[in-house]
Design goal:
Number of strands: 2
Oligomer: single chain
Largest sheet: 2 strands, antiparallel
Number of helices: 6
Structural class: mainly alpha
Shape: globular
Mean pLDDT: 84
Low-confidence stretches: 8-27
Amino acid sequence: MPDYNQNYSRQSGGYQGSNTRGNDSGFRKEKATFDFNPWNEKIKTWVRNEIDKETISFADEFGGFIAGKAPNNKNEALTTSQIRIAFGELRKIQMNGFNEEKTSFLMLKAKLAYAVKRHDKIGLTEFYNLFSKAYNEVDTKNVEAGTKQFDNLLQIIEAVLAYHKYHGGKE
């Protein structure tokens, strides 16, 4: 099981006025953000080529993080319904065919960006960051390569969703 006290950087919320979020100092508690640095190149490889056992290790660590397992992030967790919205859209694209649903795929990044701003939760922001990294590796001009890469992206998201639930992701 991943150690949630490591591998996360800190983000300070800055001054928020007096007694913000129950903190008398007027400052938010620091929130952990996920450190993608050790994973960036691997995510590209997984999308471009294929997933492997290391993908599953990443999904376990990342799924726990977005479920709120990192220090000070319990109230910043991604909900199961938020992740399922994206996953459902990805499944629809897969069922109808990547080539036929290319526009829906392209728009999904914008829809997630809107959700990030609307909900303002670290878990959703980090999920968007993962999705963006994987999304940028999908070739939308070459149908054969793009379809394979899309399927790999879908498998990564599916593994993250499974581990999010395993680590106690809430509705």
